[in-house]
Amino acid sequence: MKTVVKSKISALLDEIAKEFNLLVPTAGDGASKFAPYTSGGQVSLDGRTLLPPKDVFFPQTEKMYKFSTDGMAGSLETLLEAPKHQMLFGVRPCDVKSIHELDHVFLTKGFVDEFYQSKRDRTFLVSIGCNGPAEPTCFCQSMGVNPQESDAVDVHLFDLGSEYGAVAKSENGEAFLQKYASFFNEAEVQLPAISEFALKPDVEGITEKLQQMFDHPLWEEVSRKCLGCGACTYLCPTCHCFDISGRVAGNQGFKFRCWDSCMFSEYTRMAGGHNPRPSKKERVRNRFLHKLQYFPERYGDLLCTGCGRCLSKCPVNMDITNIIKQIREVELA
Amino acid sequence: MITEKIRAAAKELLEKGEVETVIGWERGTFWYNSTPVFISKPEQADRLVFDDFCANNLAKYLLDYRNADGKIAVFVKGCDARAITRLIQDNQVKREKVYLIGIPCTGMKEAPKTVSSQDVAGLPLLAKCQSCATPNPVIYDILLGDPVPQKEVGNRFAGVEALEAKGADEKYEHWGKLFSECIRCYACRNVCPACNCRECAFDANGLNWLGKQNNLQENQMFNMTRAMHVAGRCIECGECERVCPMGLPLMDINRKIIKDLNELFGSYDAGLNLEDRPPLGQYKLDDPEKFM
Ligand code: SF4
Ligand code: SF4
Ligand code: SF4
Ligand code: SF4
Ligand code: SF4
Fold first, then answer.
1. Could you give the residue ranges of the DSSP H alpha helices within chain A?
2. What average pLDDT does range B29-33 have in this prediction?
3. What is the pLDDT of residues B62-76, one digit of tens each?
4. What pLDDT was estimated at residue B28?
5. Chain-chain contact of A245 with B214 (C-beta, under 8 angstroms)
6. Nearest-5° angle of CA A241, CA A244, CA A247?
7. Gap from B243 CA to chain A (nearest CA, Å)
8. Which residues of A fall within a CB distance of 8 Å from B245?
9. A123 shares its domain with A167
């Protein structure tokens, strides 16, 4: 396997930054997130970022169209950014999985979201594996993610302690490793054992079970402590709800989309005021059914990667692993 | 042990049918996560705990029980009790519909870095508890445990004074940088026991008081409005700042407003008793009119 010592990574990143618009995990002042690389700046390649990389493809606010009128004439323009060659470096396997799930939503079933696609297509992915839980709240392994290795990327880096082991996972990845070959050595490597995860929810059969639990009293019970904020969904790498609004001034205006959250009370409020999800019971139920039932039914994949962000930042510690446990414990008549 | 006492108290209230629900805390994901729990059967009372991690202010949940038939019992620390006083003053909660079980509080702790370290004594107090001026509940029906001594908290406006000393551009830059980080999750608003409007201005989409875009302009509008809307009613429980996933120093804004109110209308601490009305919730002939 090709290996690169960790002390050479900043020199490598300096080189990459000449070719790509490079985004790396940073932990400067404020929350850790993926941000543009600056030479000598804060790069934090240990652990996962608080903010997931989803905004790289699906920004929290994104202008989509602008329009104007002139008498009876009108014009409409789609605001697609010119593609830039960008690299997302240091994505953890859970977040790689989340990108795969966003791909389902924005690129499949006969509908392609051009705004998402334009950013997704031009992004070169480099993942870094975890040899155990990066945070106590991690539970990716139980959600079908191999924490040590990602395949749906261009290059994957194994964490070998003082060095990274690099494997190309696409043709672009091969070319990349060849181009930067001077940074790498060839070595026999032994992958470290994966250390034990504290959280191990069992999701076997959960979708089928939930199909029979829409009216179960569990939802009333578990939703009571929820505050109806957006912390869980906005930090979740897979949550992807958005709302389209517009602004008009004079004879011109624009349409934009921005993240929305099924946990907000007005999310399902309709014109006229009716709200089909009137209380937190329906909202909390929706969040978990979307992740564990509706999404798997539609795409064959759970809409949760086990990154643990929601339970670590929820103001009231709403814990999806505990909800999964409670669902399992329910005895259906 | 206080946990035994709270379990016994909850069990007794439920067995006698004096209350229909008890709101307290239970053990969450790890040993350092204690999380709100709602107990309605005596045999569930053993889920209750009281430890160094019961930071959640439970008062807000009383808004969910505005129309409950029976009484609701709720455990209150010092800060929680002030929140309840405020909710009663705002006619959100009826005093006779709640049963308050007071717990003197020595302060809640930060979560440790790892699950395995069990060194509770070595963990720092939460920021909100370091500056707490009311560790003993100011209102209760029964008090479990003995009142704890009030610690010396120093000048709680020191941070605000340091910010006031900055120039206008410097202030703008300071807050601009912070507010750009806000993800508009509204956790700060939703946890706040002073935020009790039936419909929040930020949710009134049709009226567009606040644009949905996440940008500095709208984020500033949100953060300043949130703080102004609790002016005079903020009980300094620090919950907003504690729950902000982005770690924004929201207490600096809240305390700036409290300091301004104190200077304009005389010293006032919200929620200390039921009698003193908040400065913006009453009218006096000699109120200053500096803004006119
Ligand atoms: S959830 Fe798994 S892959 Fe993600 S950071 Fe944690 S250990 Fe790594
Ligand atoms: S589960 Fe937690 S983070 Fe999510 S809406 Fe409820 S209180 Fe907020
Ligand atoms: S639901 Fe929670 S654990 Fe699952 S992917 Fe989203 S934030 Fe991560
Ligand atoms: S504004 Fe913050 S400190 Fe004040 S009452 Fe609300 S949550 Fe507590
Ligand atoms: S909790 Fe923090 S991030 Fe969320 S809306 Fe409030 S200030 Fe913004």
1. 9-19, 54-57, 93-107, 114-121, 171-179, 206-210, 218-223, 231-235, 280-289, 295-299, 309-313, 320-329
2. 94
3. 999 998 999 999 999
4. 96
5. no
6. 150
7. 5
8. 31, 50, 231, 234-235, 313
9. yes
Co-location of A173 and A29 in the same domain: yes
Q: Tell me which residue of A187, A191, A155 sits closest to A12, measured CA to CA.
A: A155
Mean pLDDT of chain B: 93
* Atom from ligand 1 closest to the CA of residue A92: 3
The token pair at A232 is: 């869980």
Low-confidence spans in chain A with pLDDT less than 70 = none
Q: What is the pLDDT of residue B231?
A: 93
Query: Quick check: B118 contacting A, CB < 8 Å?
Result: no
Q: Do A172 and A314 belong to one domain?
A: no
Q: Does A181 touch chain B (CB under 8 A)?
A: no
Q: Is the CB of A133 under 6 A from ligand 1?
A: yes
Q: Establish if A191 belongs to a structural domain.
A: no
What pLDDT is attached to residue B292?
Answer: 62
Alpha helix (H) residue ranges in A122-252: 171-179, 206-210, 218-223, 231-235
Residues listed for chain B: 292
Cβ of A230 within 8 Å of Cβ of B56? The answer is no
Q: What is the pLDDT of residues B155-189, one digit of tens each?
A: 999 999 999 999 999 999 999 999 999 999 999 99
Written as six digits, the tokens of B187 are 């956790």
Q: How many domains does the structure of chain A reveal?
A: 2
Query: Cβ A31–B246 below 8 Å, yes or no?
Result: yes
Write out chain B residues lying below 8 Å of A224, CB-based. 36, 38, 61, 64
Of the candidates A90, A89, A203, which has an alpha carbon nearest to the alpha carbon of residue A140? A203
Contact across the interface for B61 and A225, Cβ inside 8 Å? yes
Of A136, A229, A313, the CB nearest to B190: A229
**Cβ neighbours of residue B247 under 8 Å, at least 6 residues apart?**
A30, A31
Closest chain A residue to B186, measured at CA:
A229
Same domain as A218, residue A148: no
Ligand 5 in reach of B224 Cβ (< 6 A): no
Tell me if A290 CB under 6 Å of ligand 3. no
- Tell whether A225 and A278 lie within a shared domain: yes
Of B82, B78, B81, whose CA–CA distance to B129 is shortest?
B78
Beta bridge mates, B142: B101
Mutation target among B212, B242, B243, B250 for the A interface, most CBs of A within 10 A: B212
Residues in chain A, total: 333
Between chains, do B245 and A235 touch, taking CB under 8 Å as contact?
yes
What whole-number distance in Å separates Cα of residue A168 and Cα of residue A126?
A: 9
Closest approach of B142 to chain A, Cα-based (Å): 24
B217 reaches A (C-beta below 8 A): no
Asked if A62 and A257 touch (Cβ cutoff 8 Å), the reply is yes
Structural domain harbouring A298: 206-241+265-329
The confidence score (pLDDT) of residue B115 equals 81
